[in-house]
Amino acid sequence: MKVESQKNKRAKQNAIQNHKEESIREILGFYINQVDLKSFMKKKKIFEKVGDLVDKHQNEFLNPAEFQEIQDIYEDYNIGDLAIVFPNPDYEGYTQKAVTFNEAAAIFDEILTVMTEEVTKNQLKKERDSFLLTYLTLDDLIDNQNDGQGKKKKKLKQKKDSEKKKKFNKNNNSQELTQPKDEKPVKIEKNSYEKYLDFMRIYHKQREEELMNENEGFDLKNEKGFLDEIGVGQQGQQNVSQKVIDPIKELMKVDVNDDKQFKKLKKKWSQGGYLVKKMCEDGIDYDWISNNGPPKDMMTLIRFTILEKLSRNGYLHCRQFVSGTGEHIFIVIKSTKEVIQRQAQNMKVTKQIEMGFADLFSLEPVDANFRPLRLKNYIKQILGPNYGDLKEAMDSIKSNDKLHFTSLKEIDEYCESNYKQEIRQLKDIELRAMVIKKLEQVEEYFKIIAKQLNIDQSHEKVELNSDYSITDEEWQVYYIYLDLLSQLLNLLQQHYQESIKEEHFQFRDNLPFLYRLIFGKALRKANEIWYSTHKSCWSDLLDEKIILKNIWDMLGMEPAAPYTQYFQLQNEFGKQMWRKYEINELKDRSEFNNMEKIKITHAITLKHVNMSKLLQSLIADGYFPIHDTYALFGEEKKEKFMKKLIEQEFVLEKTFEGSRQYLLDLYRDLQSYAESTDFDFQSVKQDLRINIKCPWYIPVHHLRDYFGEKIALYFAFLGFYTQQLWYIGLLGILCQSLLSESTGQYKKPIVILFSFTIVVWSSLFIVYWRRKQFLFSVQFGQLNFETGEALRPAFQGDFLRSITDDDLNEQFYPPIKRKITQLFGLAVSFLIILCVIGCVLGIFFFKNFMIETKADPFFSQQLPGLLNSVLIAVFNFIYQNLVMIFNSLENHKILSSYENSLVAKVFIFRFVNTFNAFFIISFLSNYFSSLELCKVNDDTYDCFQILSLQLSTIFISNFSGLITAVLIPYVQEKLMKKMKAIDEIPVPHAFNDIDPFIESQFALQPYQTNEEVDGSVKDYMELTIQFCFLVVFGVSYPACFILGFAQNVGKIQVDKINFVSLSRRPFPQGAASIGNWLVILDIITFFGILSNAGLIVYTSNSIEENKIEFFASILVIFFALNFVIKILVSPESESATLLLQRHQYIIDKKIKGFTSNQKTIFDRSKLNIQIKRVGYHLCHSGVINNDFLKTIKGERENADD
């Protein structure tokens, strides 16, 4: 028994060892470019059958496995999600340097190691060992410059070695006389790397002999001789014909943990020869040819390692190509639908539920009390004094069940004709009978819908209290609505049944969406039919074109479905519940639009590669998302990119017939009744065209669906800010005109009144933006954005158990350490800022002293200006670098906190640099009397007028900045295209149309502040500095508000052009607020109160006596106004609060599967709103924890992991 147990133990150990070796061998296969692609594809469950493709494509551009993957990957016409750009290490003139073993290990640890739950420490250890083993196979670097010195050293070394050898032989001879004869000489044991080198020398020698004798057949003697040389005895040579000489196995024997044996190693950084530049047969053009061998330089090894991590661990599709000039190598990354779904669930991505699935019946008409018209007593309670007449009228109604329509147009024409010719002439009792009869038909369809979508209608089984009647005209329109709805639902159900027979399940998966479109069409068409017979100038003027409304129309909001954490269900509800988006010109619909796919693919990439370190170390030149030309420009990708892929059968062209074709026709007919983001009605470029009537208008929904929430929120803020400037700008023009015409005492009340206006405007601006920001976060599911934000790759912390969700491997960094670093950073920042202020004041004092002593004009005029410019440049350079260092040392866990910290530091310095001269002129000019800072002319000294002149100069000069913001990137792009000698005759292959477009994206300007933060910091900074000018010093020049408005209108258009045409696509990011910028705006408002009070009393000379008392009084009034505004105006709008509570109710009912029995207790003092005749008392809402999936019983067990 003991013998058997030992055997089993050894067998298990051998099995574990074999598995480990197989795993390392597989990883090594990626690194040395010898991967078994067929086996790998089977593991990815993408590759199935390639036997029928072998003969056709074995010797062509791709092997059969790659060909099959291409067919699956590019069927959606998406050319790629992301691109990483590497310099070509084999390009002429690329920097060559030596790479030591420890440097290679550091590269893997810092750049290629990211700790995540998906990759275990054991897996990372295998990858690291494989990476270092592959490093040992790279070409050694030979230093040609020191070749002569190396030969001399080599000769000296050989001479010393020979002398040592002679001494050693003498010692051995003398020792042999005294040693016993039986004692054997001691052998020096070689380390593992030296053994491997010995093996490879013999191996290469043997292979050279085999190549020389390959025409003579297999030489058994040579093989036996090889086995003798590497130490395989006679017993091991019994089955020579079956023995496989495996260099990889010998490489795996090297102990990479013993770094002492690699001290002298120096490998090539570049020029490994993986790509070779060869002249074509025409003798004019050249191409880059791959030798398909193992990497021989460090840059190529790093690239292969990234490919392994993304494809093997991240299950992403990766494709490489060389740029037209040969200067760069691009890796194009693309994810599959299955990978996106799995990662979205793992990452707890917030997704919107389909409105038709979650809240379909909220789209039906309601009365002024928000009650559905179909539940009114007018319809439900038919018993009464008129029951006999009503029953007789109902019995006399002829059934129109025999009506059959084949198109939506026929239904529209019938219903419109029926309303004009019959319904309008009905009496009250007849109309009521018609409505009741038609509702019975609709109720039957509602029962089918409720069963199909699992809708709970139990709350409808109540009698309405305090019900009231609506007009006969409204009931007439309601009948048309019911008639339209019944015919549309009847037609839809017929085609739905046909699609089930044809096994076309896309129809079933999009059924809730189709129901939503039909409900929307029925209501809008009914109102259009009514309005066509009731047109008048008065109704056009008051915009009274709707007689029937749903609850969303009553609230003045677009229908908005709730958001919750994404999860997968293996049933038809799981495929119906999530909102879908149109993703290409084929009208294909997906749960994830292009922006969301890029966001998730980017997150997967960051889980495996530290991209910020990769870019900072200049190993990679670029990393960016790829533009979608169909969504951005409206260009069909089939003609632009997919034509050659279709011709060469890499992509199979889709055919549509039967229910598939009808579904497309249905989309086309109903798209005018859909939400603006349901279909790609227009490209992003078309949506962003200037609106002359409303130049601050921004299509936020479209921007969000393409660029992400963060960019959409920036544009929403820019549009809102510009709109608010319009109102105060008109008043500013009036005040500026009065100030220009007035003199002396008449100017004082104008200055005081406009100062009060600025304080009120800035306070209202802040509170109303908070309301708009909150509504944005509710509409786009961003309330819990920070809790679901991914970790920064650069974040380092200890692994602990999470107290909140029991995650046993949550990374944690003590907040106290971060606070200490932040305090130290702030102390250094304030020290530098104090130095700046001190230097500026010192220069002013120096200039003042030089003027008073009547020194040379050079010392009194030119030198101070020169010193000021130099000091600003020096301090700016020092501060910018220190800010980046301190921000990195703070070790922020998520990107939003990293960015907020950076924003605070950068703004403080920018504020001091920009406004120090203004504060000196406004409040400290008396200390520099000789400088004559407030001198207007020989007779006039007016600091207020000097401020006005400086403000006008700044705002007028800012318009030139808008021109350069467009002109410079445009010129750079054109120059780059001319300077690059693009390969005119590239190797013909299926991606000839795709690769140049991706390469052109790299030539655009990146929208980045640094490797981690996008360019929105710069954009917000410009707006915040402008806001500061207006609020703090705007009273001196009231016209600056209208100039600011005009400047922002121009900025909106410039930013649109930059984002669409001149900049790389930014990485889509979520955002719930504008972050620290809102805090900064609040602080600016505070400074504005102080400054306006000071300008009134001390600078404008509006107050001549008791200045301190007046200054204090004005401050109290201003702060009181600010406080009252914040108290009266809630930071959360009523509509957003109501919407949030409805979303919570729907999720509790639809997703959790139950409704909370606990009634919410509302505090009437916190919020009280009145909508129509209904009063709602709602509580002040906070952030809701949306982790609902844990409460779903049985659903997570069926989820696809």
Automatic annotation (TrEMBL):
Compartments it resides in: Membrane
Residues that span the membrane, as ranges: 711-730, 750-769, 823-846, 866-886, 907-929, 949-971, 1027-1046, 1074-1098, 1110-1129
Chief site of localization: membrane
All copies of domain Anoctamin transmembrane, residue ranges: 703-1142
Protein's UniProt keywords contain Transmembrane: yes
Membrane disposition: Multi-pass membrane protein
One Gene Ontology molecular-function label: chloride channel activity
Region of interest (Disordered), ranges: 147-185
Entry keyword set: Membrane, Transmembrane, Transmembrane helix
InterPro entries: Anoctamin, Anoctamin_TM
GO CC annotation terms, alphabetical: membrane
Name of the protein described by the UniProt record: Anoctamin transmembrane domain-containing protein
